[in-house]
Amino acid sequence: MSVKDNPTFLSADGLVPRLPGVVFQFFRSFNGHMNFPYLEGGGSALDYIDREQLALDAGGLIEHITGNEYPKVMSAIERSARWMLPLTTRFKFPMTGTRSHWIAVSANPEPTVEGVLWTGLMMDITEQVVEEQRLRKLCDTDALTGLPNRRKLMLHLSHLASLSTRHGTPLSIMMVDIDHFKLLNDRWGHLQGDEVLKQLATEMKKLLRCEDMVARLGGEEFMVVLPLTPLQQCHKLADRLRLSVSQQDFGVGVGEVTLSIGVAEYRCGEPLMHFIERTDQALYSAKDVGRDCVCLLP
Ligand SMILES: Nc1nc2c(ncn2[C@@H]2O[C@H](COP(=O)(O)OP(=O)(O)OP(=O)(O)O)[C@@H](O)[C@H]2O)c(=O)[nH]1
């Protein structure tokens, strides 16, 4: 029996609508006109778009369906056309009445007399992207407090330090440490200690602006990163945080939880580790002079 006599054999026309994705040809002329001469496939994505319109003119619709990611998608198309390299990109596809879907695009370009023609596939990769986002969040988050962890903080801080160096804008940080936390754990138990860490995290977030970041460095140590903030302002905020914490109960009695805080401002071009060490030394000074205070070093 030949393959074609096999009752399960499908011609390409029968097969394409059953695929879990879309097969397409996309054309871009040298004058920038874009259209999809061929667009067929399975899944629900095609229910939401006007295929006849796309066959004639895709420019407006591409801009509409790729939303904020339009520049990214267009530059991927441009790169692929210029170097005749495979087009691989992904974008968020807004669907009315349901959550947005993520679409991956993979296509091969070929030159034609009037422009470039791509032949390829689009697949719905929403589940995969959601899983990636979940794993990335896990990697970046402290499990107890839900705050960003050291890894996330270091990436953020190094990005802000390079912006500060480039634009000469102020950047300050606070190193925050709970005083005598070992005693608190010993007296109230580890679970209550955990509770204090969680409540402190909430308290710190309340005091900060949305562009600030508070992260748990580990144990009972936190760092607050304040972009566009000079040292004096950072010092004021640190003292407000210190005072507010010392006046709260945290389930262990008012005044039982206090903070020592070291503050420092970034010096243009300074290595990040040096900046952190200076702040750490300021924190040690705060411990040395008796705790429950904020210190900065000249
Ligand atoms: N409950 C709880 N305790 C923690 C956690 N991580 C670290 N610790 C405890 O925090 C304590 C830190 O103790 P030390 O480093 O001696 O510091 P300290 O007692 O706060 O003393 P000073 O910092 O000098 O004021 C240790 O007892 C750790 O076991 C945590 O996730 N939960």
UniProtKB/TrEMBL annotation:
- Catalytic class of the enzyme: transferase
Q: Which cofactor does it need?
A: Mg(2+)
Tree of life domain: Bacteria
Residue ranges of domain GGDEF in the record: 169-298
Q: What is this protein called?
A: diguanylate cyclase
What organism is this sequence from? Vreelandella songnenensis
Pfam families hit by this protein: GGDEF
Name the Gene Ontology molecular function terms of this record.
diguanylate cyclase activity
